[in-house]
Amino acid sequence: MASVVAIGLGALLAVLVVGKTASYLTFRYRCYQDGCQPPPRYPHKDPIFGLDLFLAHREASKNGKILATEQDLFARYGKTYECNSWGSRLVQTMQPENIHAVLVGSFDKFGVQAKRLRVAKPFLGPGVFTTDGPYWQHSRELIKPMFARAQITDLDVLQIHVDRFMSKLPLDGSTVELQSLLKLMEKPNEESSELLKTLTAALRRLGLRLALGRLVTLFPWDRTFAKLASKVHAVVDKSIDDALSLKGERMTNSVDFKGNIKDTGRKRYIIVDQLIKSNTPKDEIRNQLLNIFLPARDAACIALSGVLFHLARHPDVWNKLRAEVLTLENKEVNYNNLQSLTYMKAVLNESLRLTSPANPIRRYALSSTTLPTGGGPNGTSPIYIRAGDLVTINFPAMQRDPSIWGPDAEDFRPERWASGQPSSAIYLPYSAGPRICPGKQMTQTENAYTLVRLMRKFEGLENRDLCWEYVEESRLTKESRNGVLVGLIPSGGVVEGGS
C-alpha cells in the first residue's frame, strides 16, 4: 500500500514539474519570439508566495508610508520590476508607456473581474467596479447620464449640502477637523455617522481581501465581512424601497429619499429610478448602486480634503487663490464662473498630483500580450505578459517622478500648471481609457464651488496639525490619517453669499 501511495505522489510531482517546465519553456520561447526580455526581479525571501513583500507592504500601510515604500522599491529595482504575489507573477510599473498600454492601448487584454468579483461579491455583487465585458459595458452605460453636462452645471443640490457644511464651521477661529465634516456633508446625523463607520470598516475589510488575492479562498466564511455587508445592504434596500414608493413623484420632480418633493421644473437623472423603471430586480439594483457608490464614496470629499491640507500649509497659495476667487465679487457661483478660475484649476490639479484619493490600479491579463518597455539590462526592451499575470499601475509614484516633473516633484507648487494640462500619459488621478472615472469634471466643479464658498467667508486657513507630513490611510481609497486640522479665520469685509 505504501509503495502505491509513493508511486502516486511521485507521479503527481512529476506532472507538476513537467507542467511548470513546459510553462517556463513556452514563456521563454514567446519572450524570444516577441523580442521581449524580463524586467528586474524583486529578491524574495519567500519565493513561493512572496509573503515577505506582502508583509512589508502591510507594515508600510500601518505606518502610513505605502507610497514612500513603493517609491523606494522603484528606485532600487527599476521603474518596472516583477515580483511574486501569492504565487502569481506581478509586474509593478510606474512608466507612462506601460501604463498607457494597459489602460488604453491593450485595454481589451486586461480586466478586473477575475480578481475583484470573487472577493467582493458578498458585498458589492456584479457591477461597474467588479466586472468586465458586456455586463461592465451595460453598467457603464447606466451611469453615463449622471455625469452629463446638464447634471454637472446644475449646482442647486450641491448648494444645499454646502450650506449645511458651512453652518457647521466655527466662526471664532477655533480648531476644526474638516475631512470628517466633508464626509458627512450630505446627511450629518447620528444614523449616517454610524453608517459611515460601517462603510469604513467594510471598505477596510474589502481592501484586505483584495490584497490577500487567491488566499481569500481559504477563508470562505468571513463572518466579519458578511456582517458588515448585511448592515450596509439593509440601509441600501430601505432606500430602494423608499424610491419604489415615490416612483410617480420622482419621475417629474426632485425628490430625496426622505420623501421631500421639490418641483424644479427640471428632471434630474436618478439612477435608482432608471433601474426601477426597467423592472430591474431589487438585488441587482442594490449591486449597481453599491458598485457606483462605495469605490468612489469619499473620492470627492477626500480630494477636497487634500486641497485644504495643502492650502493650510501654504498660506501664500491660499492668498493667491482667494484673490482670484474674490474677482468674482458677489456674482452667482455657477459653472461658467468656476471655469474662468485658472489658478483654481492649477491648485486642484496639483493637489491630485500629490495626494490623489485613488490607489495604484491592478489589472489581470486576460490573454498574452506585451508591455512596451522596462525589460532587459537597460530597461528598454518589451516585457512579455502571460494570460493570468498581474500588472499594477503605480500612477501615484509616476506623478512624483523627478524625471517627469522636475527636481521639485515632491513639492506642492500649483504654478507648474501655468502652461496648461499635461499629457494624460503622465497625469491620471482619474485613470484613463475606457475605465476612466466618469465623475472627473463633476468632482472638479463641486470642489471648486466649495472652495469659492469657503474663501468668500474666511480670509485665512491655518494649519493646526502638529504633524506636517501627509500620513496615508489606505482602504479602497487613500486619505489623510490625521484628517485636516485647521483654524478658519473669518473674513472681515466680505459677506459670504449663496450661489
Task: Describe the protein's topology.
Elements: H1 2-33, H2 51-62, H3 66-77, E1 80-85, E2 88-93, H4 96-105, E3 110-111, H5 113-120, H6 133-143, H7 149-153, H8 156-167, E4 175-177, H9 178-183, H10 190-212, H11 223-245, H12 247-250, E5 254-255, E6 261-262, H13 271-277, H14 282-293, H15 299-313, H16 315-326, H17 335-339, H18 342-355, E7 361-365, E8 369-375, E9 381-385, E10 390-393, H19 395-398, H20 402-405, H21 440-457, E11 458-463, E12 472-474, E13 478-480, E14 485-490
Parallel strand pairs: 2-10
Antiparallel strand pairs: 1-2, 3-7, 4-14, 5-6, 7-10, 8-9, 11-14, 12-13
Helix pairs in contact: 2-3, 10-11, 11-14, 15-18, 15-21
Summarize the structure in words.
By secondary structure, the protein is α+β, with helices and mostly antiparallel strands. It has 21 helices and 14 strands. Strand 1 and strand 2 form a beta hairpin. It is globular.
Report the oligomer. Answer: single chain
Compute the average pLDDT.
87
**In percent, how helical is the residue content?**
40-55%
Structural shape? globular
Structural class: alpha+beta
Write out key terms for the chains shown.
disordered C terminus, 21 helices, alpha+beta, 499 residues
Q: Concise description?
A:
The protein is an alpha+beta fold. The protein is 50% helix and 12% strand.
